[in-house]
Amino acid sequence: MQRMDKLRIDRDGVGLLRGVRRARTLSARLRGWLGFPCPPEAGLLFVPGGSLHTLAMRFPLDAVFLDREGRILKIRADVPPGRLIRAPRGTRQALELPAGRAAELELETGQRLTSAPDPEAPAAPRRARRPDERITVRDAAPLLLMHLAALSVFWVGFSWAALSACLLLYALRVFALTGGYHRYFAHKSYRTSRGFQFVLAFIGATAAQLGPLWWAAHHRHHHQHADQDADIHSPVRDGFWWAHIGWLLCSRHTATRLERIPDFARFPELRWLDRHAYLPPLLLAGALYGLGAALAATRPAGNVTGPQMLAWGFFLSTVLVYHATFCINSLMHLVGRRPYDTPDTSGNNLILALLTFGEGWHNNHHRYPIATRQGFRPGEMDITYAILRALERLGLVWDLREPPVSLAQYRTTNAQQQTRKNLSPPG
Length: 427
Ligand SMILES: [Zn+2]
Ligand SMILES: [Zn+2]
What we know:
With 427 residues, this protein is mainly alpha-helical. The protein has helices at residues 21-34, 101-105, 137-150, 160-186, 194-205, 212-225, 235-238, 240-244, 262-265, 268-275, 279-298, 306-329, 350-355, 362-367, 383-393, 405-408, 414-423; strands spanning 7-9, 15-17, 51-53, 61-66, 72-79, 84-86, 93-98, 191-192, 397-398.
């Protein structure tokens, strides 16, 4: 059954505009009384057979008729109350909105309405956890220890060198994850050589988020099932904390699903990296410790030590990269504007886009995942894309993909601004 961004549709085929709470409770009362659902103020909509009752509506409505693909056939404004409308031949669904609402939605004939899960209906969506989705100390230990180790920055002292290492390694690894793990391995949005592919994979692996095959295979699964029951990290289905970090603290998702990523699993060096994904972070940690110790020996006045470089450059930096990445799975499916009507709850947010080098244009990305560029419009800063264009000039990467021009030319409307409000989760 079709679900709309702005509409809840129950099993009887009745939709209500979200946010019209009074109508919703009235609808519940009227449902049994009338024998068919008929809220007096909000949009009564679509009867699958194609006929549409406006009985009990207090004022005229706008009606929107959709074809089987969800494309709008026509919009009929000001349907008078108390009428039975026959939907045009071939119409599977028709929906009605209170007068004025359709204008807010700015619907156009031929535009496609895609479905979206309804985060305001919490009764069903929370799944029961499977036994292998239980969080155990053993499964949670690596992430837990990394967070505890990051707290050591309070004991090892401060130096500008240590802070610089923290920020530089944050930037380098966020880029390797977004430009490498995400836009290359998960989406193949551009091409590169086998050698540079391994460089991206190796630097990405220093972020201690397991190997590129594990990461990209799980991400492909997310796009396939975004915000549906099968989604492994949907804040709408499973709550903020599960989407943010909980799914990483159980044994269910530790295996690399090679069948989801055969295109890259054929490279033995990538399979090796996936099996030994602990090596790059260990090497980085060791190198930072060694650098700190060397600086302590050669320039004692700099106040830099091995433990200090390790704490700031590795532990703290890695935890910051963790949460930047995790926010895309959790927050970016809860906050932000939604210029595109995607069948999920992804949003766009400038602050997260800056922190994650462009991944905050998540609604854009869910709309057109194969584009290298995620900031579609001017002003949508996409640092990863800019770096990739620079690497292209150096001949290291090529065939970067742009979003179609038609997608980049959208107008912000009131309805688009309001969509997120309507998609915000309960509580
Ligand atoms: Zn997503
Ligand atoms: Zn993606």
